[in-house]
Amino acid sequence: MTDIIPLIQSAILLIAAFLVLLTAYGILRYGDNIENIIYARIHILGVADIALIIVLFALNEPLMAGAYFILAPFAAHAVANGYFYGEEEK
């Protein structure tokens, strides 16, 4: 029974690595010619956030996963607000 736990952890890490690669592809796929591209990129990075939380739970780090689960949306919101209310030409 104890030999199956590392296999499950390895499978979860591989799935998370696939999600991170998929996220990287999604970010690179979008060009800068789309209006408000920052919002689409923040949404794509949410996939990487979930992958990281899954990996932290798989590695038996629930406190770090919980902290990241709480703090990541605040960071994304701050970036989106900074872009929306910024002085940059749109």
Write up what this structure looks like:
The chain has 90 residues and is mainly α. The chain has one domain. It contains three helices and no strands. The longest helix is centred in the N-terminal third of the chain and has 26 residues, at 4-29. The model has no long low-confidence stretch (mean pLDDT 83).
Along the chain, the helix and strand elements come as: HHH
Secondary structure category: mainly alpha
Tally of separate helices: 3
Assembly classification: single chain
Basic shape:
elongated
- How would a textbook summarize the main sheet? none
How many structural domains are formed by the residues?
Answer: 1
| Annotation, overall tally of beta strands | 0
What can be said about this structure in brief?
The protein has about 90 residues and is mainly alpha-helical. It is about 80% helix and about 0% strand.
Task: List the SSEs and their pairings.
Blueprint: H1 4-29, H2 37-58, H3 62-84
What structural keywords apply?
90 residues, mainly alpha, 3 helices, 0% strand
